[in-house]
Amino acid sequence: MAKNNRTSTDTPAPGEKGEKLHKVLANLGWGSRRKMEQWISEGRVIIDGAVARLGDRVRAGQSVRLDGKPVDLEEAREVRVLLYHKPVREVCSRHDPEGRNTVFERLPKLKSGRWISVGRLDFNTSGVLLFTTDGALANALMHPSNAIEREYLVRVMGRVDDPMLERLKSGVELDDGPARFSDIQEGGGEGINRFFYVVLMEGRNREVRRLWESQGLTVSRLKRVRYGEVFLPSKLKKGQWLELPQRDVDVIYEMAGLPARETVDLSKKEQERRDRFAKKGQRATGRRNRRQH
Q: What is the pLDDT of residues 131-143, one digit of tens each?
């Protein structure tokens, strides 16, 4: 059983206070800062043999355990970012109590650290899903203040007219507050089955589906084709991942409003795989293909 007394390491010399524990754990990819605060409050985190408390700081050399398991406090100097083409019928949690497949099962193994999902896609939605080893990057990309665009290709069933599209762009009231598409473009189809490209500036739960449902329509297919400046490559099949090169990672850090970090050196096999999907001009090709549908 963990001790409840505090040790002499709780009073470090000036200038050696370290960082807030919940922030360190979040940056290491264990979860959001709010979730880490909850875990600390629940007594799940131990520092140097003592139960951690909200507001505690941690520094290099200290022993931290989460649920009895040691936590490596050393952040990797280099970062990795993956673009994953999520298929339908996968959940975005690490473990599913119903035994369904998770998006983490197909990702490459890490020697240290954890893959952190940048947001989520629901069970029946496919498309772009980013992963990174940098928790600070993931948190910044998901923070509402950055207002990063999410673009979806959606197939709806039902009659769609111009006044309806104007309402969806002007804003409608949902159960959790007002919502709207910042842009809607025709994507093809006819009759009661039509495709549209829609853009959101936030990532609330099932927001695309709920917006269309508010107009009496049913979403029969939903695919995220873009996250900020990151487009889904046309050659990346469902269930495949792509390790992003430094130039794309730099763009992602810029999207997040953070200084860029260097990407990890890849093995020859990983480099060849990445190059197959990251050819120059592929992003522009993806744009052209998308507008032609």
A: 999 988 998 999 8
State the catalytic residues.
Answer: 122
Tell me how crowded residue 246 is: count the other CB atoms within 10 A of its CB.
13
Q: List b or e across 227-244, with b for residues whose CB sees 16 or more CB atoms inside 10 angstroms.
A: bbebbbbeebeeeebbbb
* 217: enclosing H helix or E strand: none
- Interhelix angle 135-142/246-256, rounded to 10 degrees, is 50
Pick the CATH number of 8-70 from 3.40.50.12640, 3.40.50.150, 2.30.180.10, 3.10.290.10: 3.10.290.10
Q: Give the integer Cα–Cα distance in Å for 232 and 51.
A: 44
Residue range 178-212, pLDDT digits in tens = 999 999 999 988 778 999 999 999 888 999 999 99
CATH class of the region 81-144+229-292: alpha beta
